[in-house]
């Protein structure tokens, strides 16, 4: 069970984050705007370590009317201001942007709802999340179903929320339907190259993806793809007992080999060439979600980048923290797809992240009800696949990254800057360049983002200290 402590590092810092979070909750009740740390319209957050594009500085972030208006260095401000909250040596950095979270309302709010999911995000330092179009019912694949999503979210959210729309066979060849969905404000589309496990979210193939990219090109938005292709030979293992003890993680691991990921990436690259400069889908972008295979699949992606395809790739903290060898028999909490692979693969993932071959991180937060995890049976083949993690991604990345010497600047790049660009948070990206701290009250890029806002202060104090 030691594994599941996630090395929550350090405990004090996590506590601080909770305190900070509940302070936001409380103070927002008393403040007039409902969106400020304090009942003041003008104040400073001071720290000896503020992460900026120009490096880490000692100083203060000035907030006025709910927006970040400046960052001042220590020598310029000390002693001058009254409304200062001093975080001392604690790190102040941009809020995390999680581009891959499954909040399952409407339809399966008991798996994860907007209030619980976004509170967990806030507690973990995430200030924006982009919700996946499936696991809710109905899936978010049309303007009508997007409307249901927005209605569910508007009830109660505690961080900024945006949405991906689904690219499915039903809408893939219908440009009118896809354009309507994009016009309604989804940040891009998501599709699966293998069965998603959700009946009303069927899988797509390269033809659907090619058609989707041609529409996305006009909007300069990305397509996110779950990149695994089921091979017929291996897939029967999942349904037959012949594959071994279903309580043993290695049995599950064999049912989804790296060759599935490789086959999917190989097929994707036949269409991503359209995204090259001068190509028929120039402007569109393809993003491989939750890469687990750090070998052939990653090599293919690197090659495509070199050729000029517009392609990026993410991985998730659970692939960086755990390895197959360590997963106890019957502990289906570790089941996800693609699966967590062996320790050697984990090392390769870290190296790829450090080298810049993996562009960014996301949670792939995907909870369900405990009964569907079959915790008593411990049957890896039958349990729901999905890991619940949104609250822990920052401490997990930081803690497990110590061994590789990760820096705060890298954290910001993997968790804020690049995800902001992927999700088309242009105002944030622009602001990132100016000051790195973000005020999302400037030109919300999608029509509904204005309504779905907890506070218009896009930053978080974090949450951890150096060891
Ligand atoms: C395409 O989508 C639109 C909007 O959802 C719908 O009205 C139309 O019937 C669809 N066309 C086809 C050929 O399915
Ligand atoms: Zn997912």
From TrEMBL:
Provide GO CC annotations from the record: cytoplasm
Which parts of the sequence belong to the Amidohydrolase-related domain? Answer: 91-424
Q: Which InterPro entries match?
A: Allantoinase, ALN_composite, Amidohydro-rel, DHOase/Allantoinase_Hydrolase, Metal-dep_hydrolase_composite, Metal_Hydrolase
* Enzyme Commission number(s): 3.5.2.5
Q: Which cofactor does it need?
A: Zn(2+)
Q: Name one GO biological process term.
A: purine nucleobase catabolic process
**Gene3D superfamilies named in the record:** Metal-dependent hydrolases
Residue span, Allantoinase composite domain:
38-90
Q: Which UniProt keywords apply?
A: Hydrolase, Metal-binding, Signal, Zinc
| GO molecular function terms listed in the Swiss-Prot or TrEMBL record | allantoinase activity; cobalt ion binding; zinc ion binding
User: Which catalytic reaction applies to this protein?
Assistant: (S)-allantoin + H2O = allantoate + H(+)
Q: Which Pfam families match?
A: ALN_composite (PF24890), Amidohydro_1 (PF01979)
Instruction: Write out the transmembrane intervals.
Output: none
Q: What pathway or pathways are given for this protein in its record?
A: Nitrogen metabolism; (S)-allantoin degradation; allantoate from (S)-allantoin: step 1/1
Q: NCBIfam families per the record?
A: allantoinase
| Assembly notes | Homotetramer.
Q: Main role?
A: Catalyzes the conversion of allantoin (5-ureidohydantoin) to allantoate by hydrolytic cleavage of the five-member hydantoin ring. Catalyzes the first step of the ureide allantoin degradation followed by the sequential activity of AAH, UGLYAH and UAH which allows a complete purine breakdown without the intermediate generation of urea.
**Similarity comment:** Belongs to the metallo-dependent hydrolases superfamily. Allantoinase family.
The protein's name in its UniProt record: allantoinase
What organism does this protein naturally occur in?
A: Gossypium raimondii (Peruvian cotton)
Classification from the root reads: Eukaryota, Viridiplantae, Streptophyta, Embryophyta, Tracheophyta
